[in-house]
Amino acid sequence: MYRERLTNTKGQWVNFLAHSLFAQGHSERMAGQFAGDFVRGSDLSNFSDGIQLGIRMHRFIDHYTDHHPKAVAVRQIFQPPVRRFAGIVTDVVFDHYLALDWGKYSAVSLAEHVEHVHQALQAHRHQLPDRLQRFAAFIQREGVLESNITFNSVTLTLQRLSKRSARFAPIVEGGSVALANEAELKAVFDEFFPDLLAAADAHRSTLTVLG
User: Fold this and answer.
1) pTM of the model
2) Residue 23: inside a domain
């Protein structure tokens, strides 16, 4: 979610805290929310019902965010060449804001939620792609989800992304731009995220398992 779609750019580093929140504590759906960035195609029949629903919710959230007027408009604060990656940068920054405001959106503490995430990924690892299994081990080892509480997590994530290829090098500059425009970005998040919550609640009732 929260990004301009670029092939295989989202991959393994951003906005999983937000996606995991939308699983509402359901273990299989939580694993599915993570699998959404590692699974392609419409045939999800190799997955359990809960993981299928998590993947499909993940895709809905991404699509909704990519087209939300507020999320689209705020990307204009990033100038070229960073603007190409503006959606990814806002993904990262919005996960940071979510961590800061976690108590507004969940009755479960951030630490307890993160523990649930790790347990879910472990419990359903036999269904998950190898890349996701490796990523699950990484985020637990490095404390990636809980680190969203500090802005340093934004900087570190963008640094990691910038090393994917020379094409991604400019993304590292997104952190300083985001910090300089923090008031505007946070205001957009505060308007956008409740809209996303409402849209996800409405969409959840329409989800069915597809073979």
Assistant:
1) 0.91
2) yes
